[in-house]
């Protein structure tokens, strides 16, 4: 059965190649730091399951120390300049879009179709991982299309990948590290601590106060954890079920649906949701680390107020 | 138990002081684990295990060689040409159109049609910039930054408030599972139905903000051209 292992193998080879290319980049004064950092990243994908938990812990701490104390450099692989790109854009035309849209197209088709491919009564693809396997395949397909239609060779694609990965730098590792932090938070009982604190501190002695405590609590706790999924069980067990549902007779379906969406308002405001709020800053080359959060903050605050009013208006009525 | 909150303080203080976020996260993990009663080896092991289990998150960067190769072949320039040739496209119209498509497709469960590295960097941000340049002339650096940040924000807002309208998305299944543990049976279809009012509100609120953003861009450019001799 083809599973996540195949995707990790592909990732290990791609990031390993980028590490090797980094080592040869004389234009980057910190080329050895970059080579080591992306090399460890590749090693994690290739051999992470064999190191044991402590080994993986040391690996991630070394990566954090490399990025934090020494700092990554910026690789400068040779690329095309703006004039060449304009000329290429004219000559390739819309086939550029075809190759770009092949990624979502193959990912979507694959994640749906892979589930039904069965040979000899056994699934060919791990049914729980079809989306990631399809995504890995889409990258391969797009690279082939780029080779055939746009004459982009594999080495130049890897060099361009290195350029973008260096542009991300430490931000590339942040989402995965934050997920690991979330696991440690859960292990240490942080969720219950925050839930108890919220339940004690918030005066929820009428319907509106209970609703507001729940929606705002969801948003704040999500902002702390970076993820509404971690906040939902804590807040719903601490405030939602005992007060809104049990004491005031609110509808649990409406409460949960709007409660989760109140948590998403918190996601829009926090650097802890690095994938959404910090990674694009690096990808788009923005000066201000919090530029995307600033663009989202007013929407998040107004929408949180709207959610609170919506829940109050609907949850006791149905 | 309350001692574990120290980890949260480490995160908040570290992000506020703009210390390298990887160091902040590592420090917060260690502090939280120690405060929660684990010894150092146990904390590092727990952190390492969770890091290894979450490798699938970083698989997303496999897309970078493709995006880079397409950019090398002129993808961003092609996206700009395409918008300039359409003529009717302003920054506001591009962003609101993308938000509409992104939110509707996410509501149908097609969350893969978008994303920061795949769509925003190579296509949406250059299109929004090109439309502003075609309409207003060369852009000042702060305006260019703001347009890019808005392009990233549109993708996030549309994704968050679209995907929850789809029945089989993770958050809906989490809600169903959690309520079931507490003896309450809910229908996923009902949960996604009650996500619709917020989805509409999100589109309206962010749409108005995009409209105001577009108008500020135009007015700023007009004021600047008056100021020029």
Describe the structure.
- The complex is a heterodimer of chains A (318) and B (229).
- Chain A is mostly helical and 318 residues long.
- Chain A folds into 2 domains: 1-172, no CATH class; 175-314, no CATH class.
- Chain A contains 15 helices and 2 strands.
- Chain A has a two-stranded antiparallel sheet.
- In chain A, strand 1 (118-119) and strand 2 form a beta hairpin.
- In chain A, helix 1 packs across helix 7.
- The radius of gyration of chain A is 24 Å and the shape is globular.
- Chain B has 2 domains: 2-53, no CATH class; 63-227.
- Chain B has 229 residues and is mainly α.
- Chain B is built from 12 helices and no strands.
- Chain B has helices at residues 6-16, 21-35, 40-53, 55-58, 63-72, 75-86, 91-107, 116-136, 141-163, 170-181, 188-193, 196-227.
- In chain B, helix 7 (91-107) packs antiparallel against helix 8.
- At the A-B interface, helix 1, helix 2, helix 3, helix 4 and helix 5 of A face helix 1, helix 2, helix 3, helix 4 and helix 5 of B.
Explain the layout of strands and helices.
The complex is a heterodimer of chains A (318) and B (229).
Chain A: H1 4-23, H2 31-47, H3 52-70, H4 82-92, H5 95-113, E1 118-119, E2 122-123, H6 130-150, H7 154-168, H8 174-187, H9 190-201, H10 207-225, H11 228-247, H12 252-267, H13 274-277, H14 279-283, H15 291-314
Antiparallel strand pairs in A: 1-2
Helix pairs in contact in A: 1-2, 1-6, 1-7, 2-3, 5-6, 9-11, 10-11, 10-12, 10-15, 11-12, 12-15
Chain B: H1 6-16, H2 21-35, H3 40-53, H4 55-58, H5 63-72, H6 75-86, H7 91-107, H8 116-136, H9 141-163, H10 170-181, H11 188-193, H12 196-227
Helix pairs in contact in B: 1-2, 2-3, 6-8, 7-8, 7-9, 7-12, 8-9, 9-12
